[in-house]
Amino acid sequence: MLTASDIVKEFPTPAGALRILNGLNLKLPTGEAASIMGPSGSGKSTLLSILGALEPPTSGTMTLDGENPFHLHPDQLASFRNQKVGFVFQDHCLLPQCTVLENVLIPSLVAPRGDHRKRARELVEQVGLADRLHHLPSQLSGGEKQRVAIARALVLSPHLVLCDEPTGNLDRRTAETVTRLLLDLHARHHMILILVTHSEVLAQSVPIRYELAEGRLVER
Ligand SMILES: Nc1ncnc2c1ncn2[C@@H]1O[C@H](COP(=O)(O)OP(=O)(O)O)[C@@H](O)[C@H]1O
Ligand SMILES: [Mg+2]
Question: Is the Cβ–Cβ distance between 20 and 46 less than 8 Å?
Fold first, then answer.
């Protein structure tokens, strides 16, 4: 279960505090998928950085599986984020000098020991790139790179996967393929999926749809 209660986020500016999130609430049971739309600058990425334990809210609480990560010691916070949250951004953020398999394994470098290689190979297969394991990102198309980024986000079996405009840089057909893939992986792996998007098609592809407006989430 992911919960956010009465989240306020303000940024300091010379003209005073700029309030971006204003008493936002959210509750998603494990296994749910939700989309969030909203105009540019409405605070979608800010919200994901709070839900992903990257940045604390100004006030309010967020919990994942009953735990508030912002109450943890900084070391524990880093491993919470690493192991419980997967991120997919608009830009794939792959390391250019690392192969597909190595990129997918990056989160496991700072994780407890385990058979991460097996899981990484399986995920690369599930995103349809089994024959590209040892290719470099420069040898892949935009959609393929994004599929690698998705496999990387899932490698440590996170309970929460946050996607910030994951198809924003892709043409329509590639976006549809990547969307289908995300939904397929969501169905296969038990996790909460949140999709921030400007794409109506992507937003409609999940059962719960929100709009971020005036600092709060409204069901669409
Ligand atoms: N670190 C920051 N310092 C000051 N203002 C910020 C910071 N991060 C985001 N903002 C502001 O917060 C607002 C929301 O940003 P963001 O969450 O990126 O919106 P969205 O993802 O919906 O386009 C914007 O006006 C942005 O300029
Ligand atoms: Mg954004």
Answer: yes
Residue nearest to atom 27 of ligand 1 (CA): 41
Query: Cα of 55 to ligand 2 centre, how many Å?
Result: 15
Segment 84-89 shows an average pLDDT of 96
**What is the structure's pLDDT at 87?**
97
In total, how many domains does the chain have?
1
The pLDDT tens digits for 26-56 are 999 999 999 999 999 999 999 999 999 999 9
By residue range, what is the domain housing residue 42? 2-219
Q: How far is the centre of ligand 1, averaged over its atoms, from the C-alpha of 111 (Å)?
A: 30
Measure 90 CA to ligand 2 centroid, in angstroms: 9
Q: Distance between CA atoms of 217 and 118, rounded to whole angstroms?
A: 39
Separation of alpha carbons 183 and 143, rounded Å = 15
